[in-house]
Write a structure and sequence with these properties.
Strand content: 25-35%
CATH architecture of the largest domain: 2-Layer Sandwich
Helix content: 25-40%
Bound molecules: ligand MTE, hypoxanthine, dioxothiomolybdenum(VI) ion
CATH class of the largest domain: Alpha Beta
Largest sheet: 8 strands, mixed
CATH superfamily of the largest domain: Aldehyde oxidase/xanthine dehydrogenase, molybdopterin binding domain
């Protein structure tokens, strides 16, 4: 099925926040933010701004009727800084004006004096000063401390990965409209409508039922709007409440880049021990997560780093510890992979390090240690229905790995100034929110008298195609044409208490809830048909919009069936609820079964490095991916392509730079580079693994949103292999992104 949004997108008719017509009297909000990263506010002078024609009000923390608090996990983040500033770009005032232009002008008229305090931008430095978001956590399996003596080879090192800017095409924003009886309708570009509703209620000091959050779709979220869309929605609601007029907040790109958090940079220590025959006997790692100035989602992200610390490998003795370090950067947040990529990169670095010293290909180590059924993850879950070996085998045979490796070797022998590199990247990614209680969802289905159907779920469409998948689920259960089904906006009044659309689990959770609701309605309709047509219930079937009696088509079509049920006073609405079975986790002992299932895959990356200029091209990315039984191959392949390229961007060219004072230097699209059509792999092949799918996946179609991002990690190691082929003196480093500058320096590094 084609994406239900394609027509609207291509014609420019799809509605995003900025396409909502503004009501008469709408005002615009712009945040005045800090121009230093740490300090105590001494004085703010906004008298000039206040006098500017068209400025309606300057809102300070003192105007907040409820709590000045927006922290999602811990209450450690103010909406508007009251006294102390914790990062450059932290909102201090909210300017409300008749237009955004006037508000921007007013912002320039505000002056502030701050008693500056020392600034920390580095995670390890924060750890040294004991500035932590929460106590560290450790996952442990076996006893690595006792195992080192049995290891033939031991290697230790450091691996760093940098942050990543979400760069959703639609920036953060919200539009708040005051309704009667102190209620508010909030249109928000958020992945988490309920989070917006809950935090808005808290800041305004009113109950949640006074706030209706509505989301049509997002121009991308990538995790950046799981928690951090809330800030701007709350600001719009605050302005609307204080002034009793509609207020819109829509961020300028540079404001968005400066004020919002990104993927967490990590600095990590690793120690890996191997036997003579290359079995990984022991692995230790310590992760220093750069959380930024408030917790945001850092604790959950840090947890997922630990869950994925051994990637697709079975290691019998593991001890991994993570510190969430508090620095003076904007609070870092969810980003596709949610800490998983940062953990997986480190063990891949450790393997590359070992292979380099042993003068073998990393794939020899990778292959010998791939996860198998019955293996235990460091967090206690026993691996089952493992597909990693199958994807690995298929990747090798379908893409003729040995031939590729030979071609690379020949090319490198024949070329002096260009070198090729190749790598393999296996992935295993756990599906479910790591916090068990978040894994439930609801769906509301109405069948109207004329037979058309309206579907509401808690799923937010952000480009990943979940709305199309929801239509497919309903169409398949009812056995009606997809054009009979309308997918409604995501709205907290219709579907309440939702988890954010995240963790790649949106289609599974909401789809299963929808399936349950549709099945309940089908049951009623079958009873109606049975009663009126005098057919035994077990003989009634609804198929292709007709009622069947023992596989024989009756006169009754869908329309007649619905009409009759309605006249029979049968309820044609249903609310479905789904909670993932099986999963559980005990944080006290750090053991459990947190994931419904895992998604697997293997990617081969081939690159060419220009050894004069340090530039590189990704020649090919060849992937065997475990989709389960994909319910929509066009959408799912799109997810793999997009995620893989986003992963390559993170590992190669996207470089976030803060200076020592905590100011963002890569603050615009001129200084922050993401992959474009010219830098994507020249050849991008995706093969679907042959498999039966998984029962806990919706229609056996596995979650696909995040896992393929980690294929991009292979690009780092492919480039590194090319650099090694050119310069025998190159000293192995793991310091992503591998920008052309770093490549050039690596190429000409001397002993
Ligand atoms: N794809 C597009 N086009 N835009 C997005 O913002 N977000 C990703 C992924 N794919 C995203 C995307 C992230 S971070 C997640 S968690 C999943 O989609 C969320 O949707 P799902 O649960 O339906 O896969
Ligand atoms: N993934 C994504 N988002 C989340 C998670 C998770 O595991 N937990 C809480 N928010
Ligand atoms: Mo995705 S990082 O779970 O929004």
């Amino acid at each position: 099925m084609k994406n239900i949004d394609s027509r609207g997108h291509v014609r420019g008719e799809s509605i995003y926040l900025d396409d909502i017509p503004e009501l008469r009297g709408t005002l615009h909000g712009v945040a005045f933010d800090s121009t230093c990263a740490h300090g105590i506010i001494k004085n703010i002078d906004y008298s000039k701004a206040e006098k500017l024609a068209g400025v309606i009000k300057i809102i300070t923390s003192k105007d907040i009727p409820g709590q000045n608090q927006i922290g999602g996990i811990f209450p450690d983040e103010e909406l508007l800084a009251e006294n102390e500033i914790h990062f450059w770009g932290q909102p201090i005032l909210l300017i409300i004006a008749e237009s955004q232009k006037i508000a921007f002008k007013a912002r320039k008229l505000i002056s502030i004096t701050v008693d500056e305090l020392p600034v920390i931008v580095d995670a390890r430095e924060a750890k040294a000063q004991n500035k932590l978001v929460m106590p560290p956590r450790t996952f442990k399996l076996g006893e690595p401390k006792n195992k080192w003596k049995d290891c033939e080879f031991i290697f230790e090192g450091i691996a760093n990965s940098n942050g990543q800017e979400h760069l959703y095409i639609e920036t953060q924003g919200a539009y708040a409209v005051p309704m009667e009886n102190d209620s508010i309708r909030l249109y928000s570009s958020t992945q988490g409508p309920t989070a917006v509703q809950r935090i808005t209620a808290q800041v305004l000091g009113i109950p949640m039922h006074k706030i209706e959050v509505d989301v049509t779709r997002l121009g991308g979220g990538f995790g950046g709007k799981e928690d951090q869309a809330t800030t701007w929605a709350v600001m719009a609601a605050l302005g609307a409440t204080l002034l009793n007029r509609p207020v819109k907040v829509s961020l300028h790109r540079m404001d968005d880049m400066r004020m919002t958090g990104k993927r967490h940079p990590y600095s990590s220590d690793y120690k890996i021990g191997l036997s003579k025959d290359l079995k990984i006997l022991a692995y230790e790692a310590t992760f220093y997560q750069n959380a930024g100035a408030a917790a945001d989602l850092s604790p959950a992200i840090m947890e997922r780093t630990l869950f994925h610390a051994t990637n697709s490998y079975f290691v019998p003795n593991v001890e991994v510890t993570a510190y969430s370090c508090k620095t003076n950067l904007p609070p870092n947040t969810a980003f596709r992979g949610f800490g998983g990529p940062q953990g997986m990169y480190v063990i891949e670095a450790a393997i590359a390090h070992a292979a380099h010293e042993l003068k073998i290909s990393p794939r020899e180590i990778q292959e010998k240690n791939l996860l198998q059924n019955g293996n235990e993850f460091p967090y206690g879950q026993i691996a089952d229905q493992v597909e990693i070996g199958n994807t690995w085998k298929d990747a090798k045979s379908k893409f003729e790995l040995e031939k590729l490796e030979k071609e690379v070797a020949i090319f490198n022998k024949e070329n002096k100034h260009f070198k090729k590199g190749i790598s393999l990247m296996p992935i295993s990614f756990g599906i479910s929110f790591t916090k068990t209680v978040m894994n439930h969802a609801r769906a509301l289905v109405h069948i109207y008298q004329d037979g058309s159907i309206g579907v509401s779920t808690g799923a937010v469409e952000m480009g990943q195609g979940v709305n199309t998948k929801m239509v497919q689920v309903a169409a398949s259960v009812f056995s009606v044409n997809a054009n009979k089904i309308k997918l409604e906006t995501t709205n907290t009044t219709r579907v309440a208490n939702t988890s954010p659309s995240a963790a790649s689990a949106t289609a599974d959770l909401n789809g299963k809830a929808l399936e349950i609701a549709c099945n309940a309605l089908v049951k009623r309709l079958i009873e109606t048909a049975s009663k009126h047509l005098g057919i035994a219930i077990s003989d009634v079937k609804i198929q292709d919009e007709f009622v069947y009696n023992k596989n024989i088509k009756t006169e009754w079509d869908w329309k007649k069936l619905i009409e009759t049920a309605f006249l029979d006073r049968v309820c044609l609405s249903e609310n479905g609820h789904y909670a993932t079975p099986i999963i559980h986790y005990n944080k006290e002992i750090e053991k459990g079964h947190p994931f419904a299932y895992h998604v697997y895959g293997t990617a081969i990356t081939v690159v060419t490095v220009d050894c004069i200029r340090g530039r590189y091209e990704i020649d090919a990315l060849k992937i065997v991916h475990d989709f389960g039984k994909s319910m929509n191959t066009i959408i799912d392949r799109g997810q793999v392509e997009g995620a893989a390229v986003q992963g390559i961007g993170w590992m190669t060219m996207e470089e976030i730079i803060y200076n020592a004072k905590g100011k963002l230097i890569s603050n615009a699209l001129s200084t922050y580079k993401i992959p474009d059509i010219y830098s994507v792999p020249k050849e991008l092949l995706i093969e679907q693994l042959e498999t039966q799918g998984h029962e806990l996946a919706i229609l056996k179609s596995k979650a696909v949103g995040e896992p393929p991002l980690m294929y991009g990690i292979g690009a780092y190691f492919a480039i590194q292999n090319a650099v090694k082929a050119f310069n025998p003196n190159y000293k192995l480093k793991f310091d992503a992104p591998f920008t052309p500058e770093k490549v050039l320096m690596g190429l000409y590094e001397k002993e």
